Amino acid sequence: MITGMGCVTAHGNDVDEFYAKLLAGESAVTAISEWSPHEDMATTVAAEIKGFDPEEFMTKKMARRVDPFIAYQIVAAKKALQSAKLPFSKGAEMDATLDVARSGCLIGSAMGGMHSFSTATENLVTQGHRKMNPFCIPFAITNMGSALTAMDLGFMGPNYSISSACASGNFCILNSVDHIRNGEADVMLAGASDAAILPSGMGGFCAVKAMSKRNDEPARASRPWDKSRDGFVMGEGAGVLVLESLEHAHARGAPILAEVLGGSYSCDAHHMTEPLPDGRGVALAIDRALAHAGIEASAVDYVNAHATSTPAGDMAELRVLQAKFGKNPGMKINSTKCMTGHLLGAASAVEAVACVKAIETGEVHPNINLEDPEEDCDMGLLVGPKSEKMAKLDVALSNSFGFGGHNSAVLFGKYKP
User: Which of 155, 169, 235, 238 is the Cys-Cys partner for 343 at CB 3.0 to 4.6 Å?
Assistant: First the structure.
């Protein structure tokens, strides 16, 4: 059961505010303002988190000290606990509410602490190793966000991170479900966090030629399925779910927002950055997810697609979705990345929040910037330029795929007592 959600995004740190902006079709993509891109950088737009405020969830000093991916993660995790009506710091109240030995954290990251490592490397080159931050390695490794979250909360259950590129969040959610189903935990914090909008992160993806160069029109740069798409737009942030067994949630009278019906994975085994053109790996992950959840393809009402706005990936995925779900009555497909950019490892975690909000509200957000669709697009399936109220939204599918051919698919469902 999903009993709480938290997020830190370029659309704010409140789940309801975040989803309201998505429903309104508001783009978070702007010209980079937190630092000055080099004059020859091919891409100078991103969905930045500006003026991050940790609020009551961590001190401003701590937020400045740790790498941003850790700060985002801790705030998202504590907001998720708050939403689940649980304490969000260690102590007597936490011990009285939860069995901390059976409470865990599985919050991943694709890139880890790039800010910490980049600054330390610059100091190494310009001033020598003695000027490197002694915390540069702990803050750089991908598991440290999950570890520091557990230290803050006193959670002594399963604790690690998974890094499977842009599919990291889904992998963490599904592994957390397994820990609960296997009787190893009652409560898990599951999700992912990334903060790669810095010169080395942007420069690296520019070198791969993966990002949009539409610098003169930031809000129109991310445009999944549109003929003029020319690459993804970088985003940053974190998303965290509180997962509990049904028995545990009922015993404490927890709010149940939705449930994780199941999910699965596959590998393209094809190329470092390009998907299989025929979408076989995507189809395999979805088929396994449906089998794991014990539901038919005809039961799926809505798909939050991976759709990053890249020339190769968008249509390979959409053709699979149209073939599998194209005849489902009222079926709708959208991509959150047209407004938030691509949050890398955190994308599927934040998109899980969007899926649960869609199930809660029965309303799905628009596909902005889809002005000249590819010929293969079934526009009856894709959400239009305005949000749409669904006649039925009981089952949502969230896809996420990562460099290396890592495919993941998770199914969320409306809770029906």
Answer: 235
Q: Are strands 187-194 and 237-244 parallel, antiparallel or unpaired?
A: antiparallel
Asked about 406 being catalytic, the answer comes back as no
CB 327, CB 380: distance < 8 Å:
no
For residue 166, indicate whether it is catalytic: yes
From the candidates 115, 179, 306, 365, which is the catalytic residue? 306
Per-residue pLDDT tens digits for 350-399:
999 999 999 999 999 999 999 999 999 999 999 999 999 999 999 999 99
User: CA-to-CA distance for 195 and 237, rounded, in angstroms?
Assistant: 6
- DSSP class per residue in 45-92: EEB---S---TTSS-HHHHHHS-HHHHHHHHHHHHHHHHTT---SSSH
Neighbours of 104 (CB within 10 A): 26
Question: Any catalytic annotation for residue 342?
Answer: yes
pLDDT in tens, 300-355: 999 999 999 999 899 999 999 999 999 999 999 999 999 999 999 999 999 999 99
pTM of the model: 0.96
**Per the residue annotation, which of 7, 105, 136, 166 is the catalytic one?**
166
Which tokens in the block code for residue 16? 């309801």
Cα dihedral angle (84, 85, 89, 94), rounded to 10 degrees?
-110
Catalytic residue among 342, 365, 377, 406: 342
CA distance 400 to 166: 7
Question: Residue length, the chain?
Answer: 417
